[in-house]
Amino acid sequence: MSKTNKLIITLPAEFDLGQNIAFLGRSDRESLFTIENGLVLKAFATDGGPAVVSIGLQGDVLEANVLTGKLDAKGEAAVSTYIRDWFDLDNDIRPFYKMAAGDKLLKPLTKKFFGLRLIGIPDLFEALSWAIIGQQINLAFAYTLKQRLVENFGESVKYNDKLYNIFPSPKAVAALRPDDLRPLQFSGKKAEYLIGIAQKFASGELSKEHLLSIESREQQEKLLTSVHGIGKWSAHYAMMKSLKDYSAFPVADVGLQNAVKVLMKVERKPTEKELLQMAKNWKGWEGYATFYLWRSLY
DNA sequence: GCCCAGGTGTCTG
DNA sequence: CAGACACATGGG
What are residue A68's DSSP bridge partners? Predict the structure, then answer.
């Protein structure tokens, strides 16, 4: 009998697991975790090998249980940090709610989805990959492409006869050729961008640590958009989902535009200019506002 | 068949 | 610096 690791994750007051699970469950094609009976199950790559972890509510804290594999102290710290980042637990979102209370568009959303946190993608390589996959295609197809990438080039662990996938490492993707991805129905450009970014991560030219060491958001954006395949939208997407920039604002996002259109009950999508005008009230919280607006679409 | 999709790079005026 | 356009492929 091996001892099972159990991690306790403390929670802020403005947190509702049901709301966050509802967001996580938005696609039935998600390939990187599963949701069962109020528990989130996900595989993690650790130095000691892959581990499947369940995350669920236990009283007023989250409890993470290691189901297979074993975590040393370093692994436990890494998984705890990942979960805190994933659910954005170390951020005081009261100022966001305060701002939203005075905003026609956001007020009903913060009421309806109270306790929803900006669900992140802690791994920057995964965040940028997902941005590239999602460019200019519908979300359903994007999930299909991600699933094929993950299943073909990522590791997986079995638990209870089910496979739990881990997003492919930069090294694994860096070794691919576009012709490896074309049969999975990646366009030539997506394949080229994805492999190029993987190579930059594998070589150390790009890293989350380095991006985070840059204090100026403008400089972060500039560095990100200097990479082939990362435009303004993808840079802001990664900044809000991975770099904890709550003011990141992917204005060109068609989902965001549609959400505003629906909520305002108007015939056409707002222009970028109109969105920027609207977002003047959101200063510092554009990323959170965007996230709640996306949530309104499901 | 047609329009749209969680865009980007490149070219042109 | 703004605007037009090619790219690429599935979903509805």
Answer: A52
